[in-house]
Amino acid sequence: MRLRLPKPPQEKDFTSPAHHERVTSKVGLWLGIAFGACFVTGLLSHAVQHPPDWFFWPSRPINLYRVTQGLHVISGIAAIPLLLAKLWSVYPKLFAKPLVSSALHALERGSIFVLIGAAFFELATGLFNAAQNYPWQFYFVSAHYAVAWIAVGALLVHIAVKLPVIRGALTRERTTDLDRRAFLRTTWLTTGVAVLVTAGSTVPWLREVSALSSRSDKGPQGLPVNRNALAAGVTNVAANWRLEIIGPHGTTSLSREQLQAMPQTTAELPIACVEGWSQSATWTGVPVAELIRLVGAQPGSVVRVDSLERGGLYRSSTLPGEHTSDPLTLLALRLDGHVLSPDHGYPCRIIAPSRPGVLQTKWVSKLEVLA
């Protein structure tokens, strides 16, 4: 007796309401919004950290970077269940015959495969980055940035080819199919839960219900750190440490005692990190604007900040004029009224409004006026 193999399925064999064009279009619309928000806020974050000459990033409102980077991570989290739902809704297209019917169809299919691969790469590496886990050899920032452009390019091609289908599906009468509506409700609910259990990293009032929040108020002096003093190799600060300030009128150096004797500014400012977590704290220190005046520079000058740390990608940073002219850009000496712990940058650190945490240089050794 000859064994008869089952016939491979065809697109028409999939009759679930979840595979309807209207479902695919509605989920795709929200996925496009999530991807768009994630892409734009990601570009902003990249530009703040690696600014081109034409780029301007304000120091106010003080929570601006906190909001944009929080939206970046939250929209990325929301995109995960939306992407899975979208893929499930179009799954039968894999069995459509013929496999390729025209050049336009080949372009559309090719863009889908590129989009799926790039989207999964972005979302997976983004999740690992939020958890500060890097099980790969490439530099995350460059790869994430480059693949984001590939993903958006493929998405735009896909939308352009499918626009008539999308428009037609979204403008039809609202469906009364209960199964179809149930699938959409499940998708929205899953997306909402995914956001809720992770958004506490960015939204403080959600921390009590965000079970998977990657950061909280736990850490040295009640504030999280990404890179501690041991990892940075700054465990013993010399007793004769002095801050060096270089400007148009020469060089001056100040001990920590001299810095503490200067007029102090206290402000509540957030630490907002690229991984999406953020938290406010009360910082006390000397405005950078007053320090550079000591060497003949005016607020609004560009200043390079160097750290005692000798390795690491962020051992130095550049404060643009917008930040050096802001009176809340501080060389901080105290955190919540206490001397900075080594993990938070003792003997002093930069804390500036609307600035990524990686650029809030710790263990500062030198300020140099560049322009």
Number of helices: 9
Strand order in the largest sheet: 2-1-10-5-6
Low-confidence blocks of residues: none
Could you state the order of secondary-structure elements as H and E?
A: HHHHHHEEHEEHEEHEEEE
Beta-strand residue percentage? 5-15%
- The 3D shape can be described as elongated
Count of individual domains: 2
| Mean pLDDT over the full residue set | 89
Approximate helicity band? 40-55%
Class per helix and strand makeup: alpha+beta
Distance between the termini: 88 Å
Largest sheet: 5 strands, mixed
- Backbone CA Rg: 26 Å
- Report the strand count: 10
Transmembrane segments: 27-49, 69-91, 112-131, 137-161, 182-206
Protein name: Oxidoreductase molybdopterin-binding domain-containing protein
Domain Oxidoreductase molybdopterin-binding: 238-370
Keywords: Membrane, Transmembrane, Transmembrane helix
Summarize this structure briefly:
With 371 residues, this protein is an alpha+beta fold. It has nine helices and ten strands.
Description:
The chain crosses the membrane at residues 27-49, 69-91, 112-131, 137-161, 182-206. This is Oxidoreductase molybdopterin-binding domain-containing protein. Residues 238-370 form the Oxidoreductase molybdopterin-binding domain. The protein has 371 residues and is an alpha+beta fold. It has 2 domains: 11-206, no CATH class; 221-369, Sulfite Oxidase, Chain A, domain 2, CATH 3.90.420.10. It contains 9 helices and 10 strands. Strands 2-1-10-5-6 form a 5-stranded mixed sheet. It is elongated and about 90 Å long. The model has no long low-confidence stretch (mean pLDDT 89).
